[in-house]
Every structure is written in structure tokens, then in C-alpha cells.
């Protein structure tokens, strides 16, 4: 499912216009992104939670040449599925 299909499904399920569903989805995504940028955590009980994990700088290897390269430190987004979502998917 891509973004436009999700918007269509949200509109049909909630009985709202596609424009309203698109606005709601974009607002949700902006809120999650903003919270994660600040180092926070977003948790939807039963669905799952998003958090940030810091990945340290490290040495890597170029597979073509075998030469050692430096890989910069970065923040990584993690998602952990909640019990209800996990149960629904694994029925």
C-alpha cells in the first residue's frame, strides 16, 4: 500500500473526504517526524512505537576495493510493533 492508497482507505473507513484524510495523514507524519527530530519517542498503545537510536561512527570496507572507509555517526529510526499489531499479523 502506498501513500495515495492509504489516503483512499482512510477516507473510506472514516467517511471523510480524501482531502481531509490526506491532511490528517500529513499532520500525523509531521508530528512523528518533529518528535523524533527532538529525540523523543512516539508510542501508540497496541500499534507500536517509534524511537531514535544513535549509531556510532565506525570503520567499514569498500566491497569492490577492500579499502577501509570511515562511516559517519548517525541517528537511526526504530519501530517496535505493539502486541495487538503483532497478534493481528501473526494469526
UniProtKB/TrEMBL annotation:
GO terms for biological process: chromosome condensation. The keyword DNA-binding applies. One of its GO terms (molecular function) is DNA binding. GO terms for cellular component: cytosol. The keyword DNA-binding applies. Keywords: DNA condensation, DNA-binding. Signal peptide: none annotated. Belongs to the bacterial histone-like protein family. This is DNA-binding protein HU-beta.
